[in-house]
Amino acid sequence: MSFEELEHTADVKMRVRAATLEDLFSEAGRALMQVMYGRPGKDGQTRRITVRGHDLESLMHAFLSELLFITEVDGLVISGADVRIHQGILDGEVRGEPFSIDAHNEGRGVKGISYSGLSIVHDQEYYILDVIFDV
Asked: pTM, whole model, 2 decimals?
């Protein structure tokens, strides 16, 4: 599992790789936290999460948008997720730690998740996500 920032003119474009679809979603959440706070959170607290989508891309958009909401409203910096995906529904838990100005002060504000350029492909080894975070 890994993620990396790719070159983009105005926003933040990330590429995320994982061996399983569920791990791709978890790692995408960690990538979002890396951009927002300079690092993903640490385990400690959990939140239940359920989102729906009509395809994998819309499901990923809904998932990342929900994580953005959770981190902004509840102040939870996500460390990862344990999710199940079945028939357009993602259900599970996200883990994280409370926001701390001392620990989470190196990121950039993310306003939203862009549908533009959002893609999920599967090669022989990995699921690969390209996503743009609006900053």
From this structure: 0.92
Model confidence at 1: pLDDT above 60: no
Q: Residue 36, by phi and psi: left (phi above 0), alpha (psi -120 to 50) or beta?
A: alpha
Q: In this structure, what token pair is assigned to residue 87?
A: 């028939």
| Residue 114 contacts residue 90 (beta carbons within 8 Å) | no
Residue 79 CA to residue 7 CA, distance in Å, equals 24
CA neighbor of 40 nearest in space, from 92, 96, 1, 82: 96
- List, for residues 51-99, the tens digit of each pLDDT value: 999 999 999 999 999 999 999 999 999 999 999 999 999 999 999 999 9
Nearest Cα to Cα of residue 117 among 132, 100, 129, 104: 132
Q: In order of start, what are the domains of the chain with their CATH numbers?
A: 2-134 (3.55.10.10)
Look at the alpha carbons of 36, 37, 40, 45 in this order and tell me if their dihedral is positive or negative: negative
In which element (H, E) is residue 97 found?
Answer: strand 89-98
Phi first, then psi: what are they for 69, rounded to 5°?
A: -65, -50
